[in-house]
Structures are given as C-alpha cells and as structure tokens.
Amino acid sequence: MKNFHDLPYRPCAGVMLLNPNRQVFVGQRLDSSTEAWQMPQGGIDKGEDAETAAFRELEEETGIAPSKASLVARASQELQYDLPDELLGKIWKGKYRGQRQSWFLMHFTGSDADVNIETSHQEFRAWKWADPGTLPELIVPFKRDLYRALLDEFSDYLNA
What is the CATH number of the domain that holds 134? Predict the structure, then answer.
C-alpha cells in the first residue's frame, strides 16, 4: 500500500485580493459539493516564479487582468497544508500530499465589471467580496489554519 504521507507538497501560489473596501475576493469552486469559498490559488508551472504564477492564476480564475491588481506584499514564508485522508491519492493525479504555497497580498484597482469567472479555465461557480475575518469559516476545514496564518501575516495591511 502506498504511503501518501511520503509524497511531496505541490508548489503553489495564492492571492489575497483586497478591494477598496478592504474586502477579500473569494470564489466558490465548481468541483466542490460544499459551500466552501476560497481565494484564487493554483500550481506554479515549471520554470515559473511564484509571483508570475500568482498573477497568472488570478487572471485564469477571476478574469482580472494583471494590470487591475497591484502587488502589496508577499508572505514571509511558504505556508502548507495536508490533504485529508479521503482526498489523498485522488487529486493532482495522486502525486502530492498537499500544497506548499507562496501567498501575495494585492490591491484590486479595477471595478466589479472587471471580474469574469467564466474563463477558459473556469474554477468558480460564484464569487463575492468577504470581510477578512470571515475567511477561516468560509474555507474547507483542512485549510483553516493556513487562512488564519495568512490573516496574521497580512494583519498590518488589513488593519491599516
């Protein structure tokens, strides 16, 4: 039997996108049967740096052009999570035990009309702006500690 806990973590980039009201973009995944919401995030392609991946994922998942987001901060360290046992070996072709993520805080400089989740790589069925403090309750349980760590990491910017 394969020991999934010996598998590596998938390298990933994530974006905490803040609108002028200091709310965070979250999307509801198409492939989830839960009511969970998440921030844009995805794998880092071979030869791609994390910041480039973050802007690419933002555009692929939200339709927001990179010119409509400005980089504010990068998390001081990668954050990681483990998949729950029932998902191990079932997603990402069974190659990873979870993700190690580089996170970026960005300001959204566009308008809601610049958001179009019906992209060629559509991942979200719905989207909304959420108050930062509600993020841990919106995400799937196995990512809650990571979202709490992100709120701590970017607290100076969120509370400014």
Answer: 3.90.79.10
